[in-house]
Amino acid sequence: MTVTLLSAVVLLVLIGVAIGFARRGGRVRAPSVSPVESWSGAAGPEFAALSEAERCDLIFAVAALEDVPSQALLERALDDPSEAVAIAAARALVRQERAGALAAYLAAHPGERAQRIARTSELFA
Length: 125
Known about the structure:
About 65% of the residues lie in helices and about 0% in strands. It is an all-alpha fold. It is globular and about 40 Å long. It starts with a helix and ends with a helix.
C-alpha cells in the first residue's frame, strides 16, 4: 500500500514537471552547469535544466523514495548553487535521520553558506 502510494506521488510530480515543460512551449533553458556535473543531471538528463523551484520539487519527490540511490542524490544536492535547494536537501536528510551525512558535508565545506545551512537545519530537528 505504501509503495503504491509513494509511486503515485512520484508519478504526479513527474507529470507536473512534464506539464510545466509543455506550457513553456517546448523551450528548454540551458543549464548553468553541465548535466554531468549537476546533481539534478545525475537524476536524468531531462532534469538538468530545471529551475530552482523545480529542483526543490525534485528534492521532495526524491526524499519520499527513501532508498540508497535517492539518499546519495540528496547528499549531492547539498552542492546545488541555490541555497534554497541545498536547504531543502538538508531538510530531507534530517527527516530521514541522516543528520550525520549532513554534518559530514558541512564539516567538509566550511564557510558562511555551511553555517546558514546548519542554522536552518537546526530548526528541522
